[in-house]
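Section 3.1 - Work completed
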Amino acid sequence: MDRMPTMDRKNSKILFLDLDDTLLNHNKEITEGNRTAIQEAVKAGHRIVLASGRPLLAVLPIAAELKLQGEGTYVLAYNGAEIYDCFRKKVLYRNPVTTATAAELFQEAHRYGIHVQTYNHDDIFLAEAEDEATLYYAKRIRIPYQIVEDLEHHLPENPVKVLLIDLHDHEKLEQFRLDHQESLASRCCMFYSNPMFLECVAPDCSKGAAIHQVAELFDLPMENTIAAGDSENDLSMIREAGIGCAMANGTKTCKEAADYVTKADCDHDGIAEIIHKFLLN
């Protein structure tokens, strides 16, 4: 990947932000306090990088809303499986699961009675039925979906992510993970983005790995990076960043891993708190 012009290695920082229940409040909105703080951070010479488990198509509108589209602006989608250059409008990096692994995940999810879906190369999510989980997910992230019967046998080649959803029984998802994490360890990694969503990505894929790549693009040391999140899929970047921040509404594990836990939650300008403490002080 091409490097950007070198930033001020002493003073400039990169802030990586998870979206759901971190930057976005529980209504999936950016609070005015967070929006203003982000604008001030960018004006001061810092970089803001959105880092989400969402597909790219569901991240880009938020980047546009924040005017994060200039040269040297990136987003991380699919838990770091894609790195996208918002200025050049192209994917710089993609790390998919294999078609065979995706097919096995579908087969096993069917056996457990768990809703399972994936994504085509246009970021439209593919499901097998217009059921409660499909409609919930479509409303939550606001992207199109396509119903494909017998999707296990009509998978896109090397999809970037497989997602298992159970809106009512977290224990069923956890049992699935416990039963398969050893046999699938060399082929995929599984973690939660919230208690209802079990994310399945390539084995070496994580937000933590992706933030290293972005720091290298700017020729900045990791000590100049800050990451904020709330859930298990954020753990890797919270641990890898120079300063890892957990939201007040985050999981216990995230808070234990973090260098800093916000006093404000995602509904009350928690990201603005981080920006004022670590970027604008």
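Second construct:
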Amino acid sequence: MNDWHSAEEVLEYAVSRGLVPGDAPLEAEALSGGVSGEVWKVSGPQGACVLKRALAKLKVEADWFSDVRRVEREQEAMALLSPLLPVGRIPRVLDYDADGYAFAMSCAPEGSESWKDRLMQGQFDADIAGRVGLLLRTMHEASRGIGEAEKARMADLTFFRELRIEPFYAAVAIRYPKLSGRICALADELTEETPDVRKCVVHGDFSPKNILIDPDGAPVLLDFEVCHWGNPVYDLAFCIGHLVLKGLQLGREADAYALVEAFCAAYGEAPARLLPHLGLMLLARVDGKSPVSYIRNEQTKERIRSLAYPLIREELSGEPLAAIATMLQGGHKK
């Protein structure tokens, strides 16, 4: 397998796969937004597509490796979920190169924007958050009814362990030995082989970075490589954690809470174990193997830690939204 070191190599690959004609003017543009793969947009007179290739070593400072065969899981998950979701909510798989650990997919509608970019620009739109919450609800509820063969194909947790349990839960447990028992128990809640724990298709990377907002305000979901048959609480904690972090970074706590409220209202009843997993997500994004790039101020990091500790220790109880409101109002300290 050869990496794509230049636009010329990407175009040569796209032509070799029959995705674009070799005798037409073509352009290749590297896309940003991820640490686990190379992503390029290839455009020509007949249209455009996106190429993605998995990397063995992820693009972070820490040594973080994952099996490149996860690209097979990604395109399988997209094919599985496509008929379960409204048209246009996920890209279509156009080509799969098993030997090259790469695949091609359709582009999002022209004019689509990254939800993360919009949030970082201060666009805290509760309507968008509600649409995203409804999309997640639809994915979770619709996937509960898939057949046993489909469940079996999504049951292997290798990639979820490599890309989520190890860099988030395990890495943070090592850094915080006094919390390690609780953190390991939380990890077990995501991986136990019981029907009451693993009961729907979980995206595993449900964050604003992986959600585009099309010109009509509808979300388009990307990046399915850690998709698995699992515990839905993970997706909620992962996404809500990102919304909280952006509110804290930008000093927009009240607006962040409005997003969380709209997201949860559209999703429906929150899983009972949301709060401790949310605490772990917050702590992992400053002290795990994949810290968010936009939080550099040590005072902000300390505030996040002080909010995460009581959630992990389960000192905040009751209805999740009320607890999150209390947390964002600064009601808990280390």
